[in-house]
Write a structure and sequence with these properties.
- It is a single chain.
- With about 180 residues, the protein is an alpha+beta fold.
- It has a domain of about 90 residues: Cytochrome c-like domain (Cytochrome Bc1 Complex, Chain D, domain 2).
- It is built from four helices and two strands; from the N terminus they run H-E-E-H-H-H.
- Helix 3 packs across helix 4.
């Protein structure tokens, strides 16, 4: 058991003895530092080829110590009633990993593979939160929960005002 621990530690610190260690320069596209690279196995060669992801991540600061961009602090939402959100569009946004992606972290009714990190969104309407309170949680949860890890969808431009309104309408429909 002790020998296994040293092998695991050595591979983690020094790289794989099979040559699969990843340099930090391998994980970032050298032409565009905000585009990540994905490994692709070259069949029967023992090699990895690095392929650029199709999404540019420059809009979103990261928690990496090498990301020197300033992360904006918590921002209060400017919610103006009436809601005028569409729960059908809100559900589509909640399921779409490139937009809201709520299902990645939250349990949502009717989904086979719910997230387990965020609070369950089942029967959300029973929490009796106002539209403005839910809008704020989605816009920038750090205002009410400073230690939350949910992205600030509004300040980072991940979701538009209308998309947030659609999500609020969807959450308010969950009885």
């Amino acid at each position: 058991m002790r020998r296994l621990w040293w092998v695991v530690l050595g591979v983690g610190l020094l790289g794989s003895p099979l040559g699969y260690a990843h340099d930090k320069d391998e994980m970032v596209d050298p032409k565009t530092s905000t585009k990540t690279l994905a490994p692709k196995v070259v069949v029967d060669s023992g090699q990895l080829q690095w392929v650029p992801h199709f999404m540019d991540l420059s809009r979103w600061p990261t928690l990496c110590h090498e990301d020197t961009r300033i992360i904006p602090g918590p921002q209060k939402a400017q919610y103006v009633p009436p809601l005028r959100g569409d729960p059908v569009r809100g559900r589509a946004i909640a399921m779409d990993p490139w937009r809201g992606g709520c299902v990645t972290c939250h349990e949502i009714p009717g989904e086979e593979w719910p997230g387990t990190f965020g609070v369950a969104l089942n029967r959300y309407k029973q929490r009796r939160l106002t539209d403005a309170e839910i809008y704020q949680q989605i816009f920038d949860v750090r205002v009410t929960a400073p230690r939350a890890v949910m992205p600030p969808f509004g300040p980072q431009g991940i979701l538009s005002d209308q998309e947030i309104r659609d999500l609020v309408a969807y959450l308010q429909s969950l009885e």
